[in-house]
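Record filed below.
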Amino acid sequence: MKFGILKTYVVPHPPIILPEIGRGREKDVNATGTAFKQIAREIAELAPDTIILSSPHAPLYRDAFFMSCSDIDRGDMGNFGFPSIKESLNNDLELADLVLQKAEQNDIPIFADTRENKLDHGSFVPLYFIRKEYKDFEFLRIGLSALSAKTHYLLGQIIAEAAEKLKRRVVFIASGDLSHALKEDGPYGYKPEGPKFDKMVTDILSRTAFDELLTMPKKLINEAAQCGLSSFQIMAGAFDGKDVEAELLSYEGTFGVGYAVCRFVPQKQNSDRQFLELQKTGGKTEDPYIALARHTIQEYISKGIIPDLPKDLPTEMTEKRAATFVSLHRNGNLRGCIGTLEPRQNSLASEIQNNAVSAATKDPRFSPLKVYELEDLEISVDVLLPIEKIKSLEELDPKKYGVIVSSGYRRGVLLPNLEGVDTVEEQVAIAREKAGIAANEKYSLERFEVIRHE
């Protein structure tokens, strides 16, 4: 008899697919409903001991995962006008306890909520179909977090290890919709990133290229207005080190939201699919400028210290002085940017350290960086070349030159080659507004080039 993760499924969670709620409109997503009924029959044939489900609509925390550790999970569809549609499930607390132990050993924060938790609709909709075919199972519900893709994947590994150790026969359900921006009349209107995201994710899932789930473009993820990716990353981690057979059972975008149903079956062991280990050993060595900024931020945020300079830095970083800017992004969004127009420290390396700490803790637009944000922090370091005075806008190019707009003591700076800044007029206007200089005031212009490390 096999133990551990027997099968996993990616599923959506549209309440309208329930006939009581859809009142006929469920027929508009008939392929999704048919796929749900199919996987419910498959699960009944497997007769698992436990069903684990990850849901984007369970309680969501920035710096930890939610896990329901009450004796029973109950829920209904009262929020959608049907409180009479109810479910009640006994939780697998022994499995939950082992997952918690392993998570603590791996520094993965999980909030074990022992209160009686109401089932969210991201969990309820899949369970509605499953429990029509099979009810003799215990349950374990997990939420998502704002932690990194790698951390979600690692949680999946831990879940699989715990299931195998306890000799549990487990089915994992990764609940999550794809893009909510597929149509103008959809919940978020239409964005071209919506169909692009759905095509990319369904392709990745069909090929079981789970490493690609961990490195999808952040801008695409944000613009697609999706809710399932982190759930799929947990599921993928449960298959780490194994070949996987996949089948996309259905995909629909009828209501402007992507609904995919996909089945995954583990096969033989394959060390080439240990994706976190491969990322550790197979990637390029990080640029020393970025590595220094990252190490400095990590030490300062986690320990409150600015570390000594590494002894193996390039001589250009230790023997030269230069002005720098350090920019921080998370999930495609700016998280801090601080810099200097003239060198203030005794070396370029010290300049980077000083500005890295300032970008992480002193940018007035943001709260100081938190420990949980460190893992997926994107860092760029710009080293400024000499500043030049200019007389007209014709001497600017927003892709090549940064700009300094000055009027008296007020000074606004904008770095070159920034996403969304395409014209000289836009560049100057943004820098001017940053300095509080009105359009009708006199101002002077300077330009500079940078060497960008990212």
